[in-house]
Amino acid sequence: MKLFTVLIGIFSIFYQATLGADLGYIRSTLTQHFSDARHHVSNPAYKRQAVQFIYDEFQKHGLNTNYHNFTFREVSYTNVIGVLKGERFGTYKDEIVGVGAHYDTVDITKGVDDNGSGVTAMLESLRQIAAGNQGDNRRKNTIIYMAFDHEEYGLTGSRLAIDEWLLPWLTKNYGKDLELLKPNGIIVLDTVMNYNSSTQSQVIPPEAEQIFQLYFPKTVKSIASDQFKGDFLATIFRQDLDGNLASTFNSEWLGEPQPQFEIEMFEIAIDADVNLFGHFLRSDHANFWKSPIPAIFITDSANFRGQMQQCYHNACDNLANILTDNNVQFLGKTADTIAATLDKLADDTGTSGASSVCFISALWLSIGLMQIIP
Ligand SMILES: *[C@@H]1O[C@H](CO)[C@@H](O)[C@H](O)[C@H]1NC(C)=O
Ligand SMILES: *[C@@H]1O[C@H](CO)[C@@H](O)[C@H](O)[C@H]1NC(C)=O
Ligand SMILES: CC(=O)N[C@H]1CO[C@H](CO)[C@@H](O)[C@@H]1O
After folding, report:
1. Which positions ≥6 away from 172 have C-beta within 8 Å?
2. Which ligand is nearest to the CA of 320?
3. 76 C-alpha vs ligand 1 centroid, how far in Å?
């Protein structure tokens, strides 16, 4: 019986390492670090603590961590960027993959959903990625984590992170011919934990209804046939350009448990003018779309769903409203999907598959031994 207990123990370690977000970590991270305004005027001390926490988490999990400080209209801001070098680091074969989220808020909000949720999912995915990165077990491709400051005015933080940090860093480490580099791209998370399974809780932006019908007929139909439940995460991406990252994220999501948490894809046709979709340009991915780096935008649709219709950029985007069991689990699924997507794209030789093979053999082994052991 003792051996059986040990096996169950091993089994649950595998389970923890390969599947399943740590919901306790998600709750404590949101509560302790992302539950009050992170604004340079209204709450600078809390904002400084948040940036320090992100930096420490990046370092603790083995990222090569950097501050990218910048000044905008005489105020100083800080992006945090962490790098996990793959075997192909420094060569044009390195199909870099990344994840990013902004941690700042507007002045009066508590910013739990917007955008404490995105940073928290990013950090939880890092915890899982780091668990699979012990010793010499390096992935093929490099992974980059980015926490952006100052999203709120013109997406300044990410724009400068790309222009002042990322592109010079790529040139320095990979050489001048950046067009030879074929990055997988970056997953940008913004306002991602508001799940609402009530009918009619999801709104299509009224002024954009026709455009949505015209450009995303299948997706709109799918939401309508589900009686406008706000029970999905939205993936927004450009056809072909971001397609590989988007389809990997989508299929990893569908492979996770908890099918009540759905996903909807908004694919912007390659010949469409992206400026038609103003709401789809509301986060940091928009700056990547102007750069040579692919990006997908992951969101719960912010002010177009349920309570966030009132709470968006307001004081009630707070723990009392947002930190529900459903929302924490929904965010957990997002973190798991990010980790699985990064793992898959960073390692195209199938070592990421190896952890699930390992996991399945551990499962079979324990079931087999359970039958042998009295
Ligand atoms: C950048 O900002 C961080 C925190 O905001 C600070 O700790 C660090 O010393 C700054 N680095 C430089 C070079 O100014
Ligand atoms: C879901 O959305 C409706 C409004 O559309 C709101 O009244 C309700 O409180 C929301 N439920 C949750 C759990 O947020
Ligand atoms: C998608 C979304 O709601 N993004 C918002 C994130 O937060 C900033 C500032 O808090 C807003 O300006 C964005 O619109």
Report:
1. none
2. 2
3. 9
Token pair of 8 as six digits = 């169950």
Compute the distance from residue 24 Cα to the ligand 3 centre, in Å: 26
- How many structural domains are present in the chain? 1
- Ligand 2: centre distance to CA 196 (Å): 6
- Find residue 233's DSSP bridge partners: 263
- Rounded Cα distance between 283 and 297, Å, is 8
Do the strands 262-268 and 185-189 form a parallel or antiparallel pair, or are they unpaired? Answer: unpaired
Axis-axis angle for helices 23-33, 44-60 (nearest 10): 150
pLDDT at residue 20, rounded to an integer: 85
What pLDDT digit, counting tens, does each position of 4-53 carry?
A: 444 444 444 444 444 589 999 999 999 999 999 999 999 999 999 999 99
Provide the residue range defining the domain that includes 84: 2-370
For 39: left if phi > 0, alpha if psi spans -120 to 50, otherwise beta; the answer is beta
Q: What is the CATH number of the domain that holds 248?
A: 3.40.630.10
Amino acid in the structure at residue 363: L
pTM value?
0.87
